[in-house]
Specification:
heterodimer; A: alpha/beta; four-stranded antiparallel sheet; 10 strands; globular; B: about 260 residues; mainly alpha; binds adenosine-5'-diphosphate; binds magnesium ion
Chain lengths: ~250, ~260
């Protein structure tokens, strides 16, 4: 099995220049390895550093130390992103475009030929159930619809690796279910999915392996079943144990 | 290259789908038409005066469109977070900047074309006189000058995050160059020492946008400019545009994009 995503001793510091210089360590020596074909859950409470790690993988934030690779290529090179799809945490797309125009724009960026792009756009709009709204501007979409446009754009280049930042946050139960189904379907097609989340229920059902971080540090990683067994309970208990939270009944 | 055109296409689409672009356009059209009315005084002096005002309006409107649109581009992409899914694709930051530049430049060019067509129709219908080549030179030089202005605004928009302050500063800088840039060397002659050097340095560093202003040739019908001079001016504009785009890229290349 080959490694598709890898970080090595990744460290990210944010320095603020207000009043006096303060340095905030958002990530510290993070090592991750994701294998081809697996669904990998990247867990942590709010502010743990999940988005920061993903931002490094996409080249938005330069690492202070360490390195990250996609398909064995350093993320500092744009070509590392040719075979990935990415769904940001909170997304707003060009509101004045329609879903169809947006997808066509991204297809052009990947250099897809016209006929192939048309076929792909039809497929994707069907997959995310936006066929009826394809010719309406995105500003008229509901939140769930926007999230699904986001999924469609992440899949435009038929990527081998998907990086999703909290794909289900802010969605209603139906929307979450749809996103989970899409992830499951992608897994069946042999794609690798790397997604961050703090919703443990969904992680338990779709993930092969998880990594749990807290305050920028890796606390645990491994198969969901192993973690659950180690902590004698469910994933939620394992998660709370690992990030060092004492429940009232335990203390 | 395809990527750059795709990016430019989005800029242009946004412009014509937003209402504020039409406001400026309708305003200028109205003023031009109103000005056309005055033409029925058969006094050549008044006709010239009207033409002068129309050209001035075209210049101010084009500058406003160019600066306001450009200054907004990159901050808006960051504000609305559309830059994240975009740069997560294999788009280099250099392509991103070039795409934005091209989109703004083409959009401004289209606006400019509409303005000149208006101008030509209104003055031409009164005077039965159509100096096409003069218009061509005027519009081309103005468009070349706007390339420098757009590149400058793009550069400004990555230094300061607020589009309104970028717009104001760029507008003042450009207006300053247009109004006094050409006289700085003469002014310098009459200054005491430290000031003199400073004025000369500024004179040699700034892009001389006023060289591209051939409004008087259109208004007073002085005839065509030497074509070789047009080529030289184009190259001069291209050099400054390239310089500002390079500066923009240097500033943006390593910028951390997290909120
Ligand atoms: N631009 C920034 N400047 C300073 N601190 C930041 C910046 N971005 C994120 N942080 C800090 O880094 C930590 C990790 O944030 P983030 O990666 O967004 O967490 P998560 O996505 O896991 O909720 C947080 O404590 C946050 O306050
Ligand atoms: Mg986050």
């Amino acid at each position: 099995m080959s490694i598709i995503l890898k970080t090595e001793k990744l460290r990210v510091e944010f320095t603020s220049h207000e009043f006096r210089q303060t340095t905030k360590i958002a990530l510290d020596s993070l090592d991750l390895e994701v294998n081809t074909g697996e669904v990998f859950g990247f867990l942590g409470p709010n502010g743990a550093g999940k988005t920061t790690a993903i931002n490094v993988l996409l080249g938005f934030v330069p690492p202070t130390r360490g390195a990250a690779y996609l398909f064995g290529i350093d993320v500092r090179q744009p070509i590392a992103r040719q075979r990935i799809g990415y769904l940001p945490e909170m997304t707003y797309y060009y509101k004045f475009l329609t879903a169809e125009e947006l997808l066509r724009f991204y297809a052009r960026i990947f250099g897809l030929p016209r006929t192939e792009a048309d076929k792909r756009i039809d497929q994707l709009l069907k997959l995310v159930e936006l066929e009826p709204a394809r010719k309406r501007p995105i500003k008229s979409y509901s939140k769930g619809m926007q999230q699904r446009v986001g999924l469609a754009q992440a899949l435009i280049n038929n990527p081998d690796l998907l990086i999703l930042d909290e794909p289900t946050s802010g969605l209603d139960p139906l929307g979450r279910m749809q996103v989970r189904e899409i992830i499951q379907r992608l897994k069946n097609e042999g794609k690798t999915v790397f997604f961050s989340s703090h919703e443990l229920g969904e992680v338990e059902t779709v993930c092969d392996r998880v990594a749990i971080i807290n305050q920028g540090e890796l606390k645990a990683s491994g198969r969901v079943s192993d973690l659950v067994a180690q902590h004698h309970g469910n994933l939620e208990k394992a998660f709370l144990d690992i990030i060092g939270y004492q429940t009232q009944s335990a203390s | 290259m395809n990527t750059i055109w795709a990016l430019a296409g989005v800029v242009i689409k946004e412009l014509y789908r937003r209402k504020d672009f039409y406001v400026l356009f309708v305003l200028t059209a109205l003023i031009t038409i109103a000005a056309g009315m005055v033409n029925f005084f058969n006094d050549p002096k008044i006709v010239r005066y009207v033409k002068d005002i129309c050209m001035l309006l075209i210049w101010v409107s084009a500058l406003l469109i160019a600066i306001v649109t450009t200054a907004r581009q990159i901050p808006a992409e960051r504000e609305s977070r559309t830059i994240f899914p975009l740069l997560a694709k294999p788009v280099t930051r250099w392509q991103f900047i070039l795409g934005k530049f091209l989109g703004c430049w083409l959009a401004t060019g289209m606006a400019l074309l509409v303005f000149y067509v208006f101008f030509a129709i209104i003055t031409g219908s009164r005077e039965q006189y159509w100096p096409w080549l003069t218009y061509l030179q005027a519009i081309w030089l103005q468009w070349a000058m706007l390339a420098v202005v757009i590149a400058l605004s793009l550069c400004g928009s990555i230094i300061s995050a607020a589009p309104s302050s970028t717009t104001t500063i760029c507008f003042i800088a450009v207006a300053g160059i247009l109004l006094v840039g050409g006289h700085l060397n003469t002014v310098a002659l009459h200054q005491a020492q430290p000031l003199q050097t400073i004025f000369y340095t500024i004179y040699f560093l700034i892009p001389h946008l006023e060289w591209f202003d051939i409004r008087d040739r259109v208004v007073y019908d002085w005839g065509l400019l030497n074509w070789l001079d047009c080529v030289r001016a184009t190259l001069y504009a291209a050099a400054y545009t390239g310089l500002f785009l390079l500066l923009t890229w240097l500033g943006f290349r390593r910028k951390s994009l997290n909120t």
